[in-house]
């Protein structure tokens, strides 16, 4: 299994408080980490995915801590979290360094044109820091169902 790359990023915790999140601090706590990368707060696809995590949080919380990462600022995250009642951690990777390390930023094709941007991706990291599962180029709608299926959770 591949080891997850350690990182620290500023963000907002599940209660809306500003935090400095370091992956190593959350390992070994008896739960996986669902680390998902998304392009932009409050856009149609990203809102669909975030609300899906929010709505299925009770089914996931026994297995994992949910952590969303985008290039948006902490201020944008606060507004996004408040507007949709998001109940999980959001991190700000404004320099896109962590995204690049995880292969979640790079060349992609949108509407037939090649462009640089965030590649919607999700990683499940176990308590020892290993990547148990990785999804690249995911579709926002229905992706949380794939994660639930991975854990064997029925809706």
TrEMBL record:
Keywords: Antioxidant, Disulfide bond, Oxidoreductase, Peroxidase, Redox-active center. GO terms for cellular component: cytoplasm. GO terms for molecular function: thioredoxin peroxidase activity. InterPro entries: AhpC/TSA, Peroxiredoxin_BCP/PrxQ, Thioredoxin-like_sf, Thioredoxin_domain. Its EC number is 1.11.1.24. The keyword Disulfide bond applies. Residues 1-155 form the Thioredoxin domain. It catalyses: a hydroperoxide + [thioredoxin]-dithiol = an alcohol + [thioredoxin]-disulfide + H2O. Thiol-specific peroxidase that catalyzes the reduction of hydrogen peroxide and organic hydroperoxides to water and alcohols, respectively. Plays a role in cell protection against oxidative stress by detoxifying peroxides and as sensor of hydrogen peroxide-mediated signaling events. Monomer. Belongs to the peroxiredoxin family. BCP/PrxQ subfamily. This is thioredoxin-dependent peroxiredoxin.
């Amino acid at each position: 299994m591949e080891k997850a790359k350690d990182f620290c990023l500023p963000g907002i915790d599940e209660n809306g408080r500003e935090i400095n999140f370091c992956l190593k601090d959350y390992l070994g706590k008896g739960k996986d980490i669902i680390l998902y990368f998304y392009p932009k707060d409050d856009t149609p696809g990203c809102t669909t995915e975030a609300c899906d995590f929010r709505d299925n949080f009770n089914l996931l919380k026994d297995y994992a801590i949910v952590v969303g990462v985008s290039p948006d600022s902490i201020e944008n995250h606060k507004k996004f979290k408040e507007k949709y009642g998001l109940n999980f951690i959001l991190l700000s990777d404004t320099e896109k360094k962590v995204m690049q390390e995880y292969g979640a930023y790079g060349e992609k094709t949108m509407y037939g044109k090649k462009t640089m941007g965030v590649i919607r991706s999700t990683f499940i990291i176990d308590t020892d820091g290993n990547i148990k599962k990785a999804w690249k180029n995911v579709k926002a709608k229905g992706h949380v169902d794939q994660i639930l299926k991975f854990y064997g959770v029925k809706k």
